[in-house]
Amino acid sequence: MKTTLRRKRIILPTIAAVAILAVGGTIWTATADNDVNGDERDRVANAATSAVGGEAVDVETSDDRGEAYEVEVRQADGSEIDVTLDKDLKVITKDADDSDESDDADDRVLSGSERASAEKAALAAVGGGKVVDVEASDDRGAAYDVEVLDKFNVEWDVDLDVNFKVLNKIADN
Predict the structure, then answer these.
(1) Comparing 86-90, 128-132, 136-140, 150-154, which segment has the lowest mean pLDDT?
(2) Domain span at residue 16?
(3) Staple partner for 71: which of 38, 48, 52, 108, CB 3.0–4.6 Å?
(4) In total, how many domains does the chain have?
């Protein structure tokens, strides 16, 4: 009888602790996403594009001290500028991608027709959605890397060859 009672005193708290950790882990995983959505995304994106022009393609919260948001802005010529904002939406930094830093293929600015063809092929590959990013690839055999957010908010990485044929598509977790 004492053995059974002792087991209950050990097993029940252990099961409770495991259940609490499982629920906490699930909640933490669900809230660990840095993407900013909805009205807040629009407000932050507008602040960044007001400072540098172009279109905001990615808006995230920042975990760096003194920074609240990081916004990736695509210019009309295809170049990108990373804009960092504080909690009051004041610009802290503007960092233009510099294609002169190295000769990597992924530093090359894509033409408008390349970008449009890559977007069309990637959207068709995942059944539609919104293109988040298009860039030249530095992966062997791939010419373009395209990120697409599908209609179910699943982000896809799509690799294309020089003829915009899909080589690989992977859903991000």
Answers:
(1) 136-140
(2) 1-32
(3) 48
(4) 3
* Residue 113, Cβ density class (10 Å: 0-12 exposed, 13-18 middle, ≥19 buried): exposed
CATH number of the domain where residue 87 is located = 3.30.505.20
Query: Do residues 150 and 128 make contact, with C-beta atoms less than 8 angstroms apart?
Result: yes
* pLDDT number for residue 100: 46
Query: Residue 156's beta-bridge partner residues?
Result: 148, 171
Q: What is the pLDDT of residue 27?
A: 54
User: From CA 95, how far away is CA 2, in angstroms rounded?
Assistant: 69
pTM of the model: 0.45
CA atoms within 13 A on the CB side of 25: 6
Comparing CA positions, the residue from 111, 92, 99, 47 lying closest to residue 73 is: 47
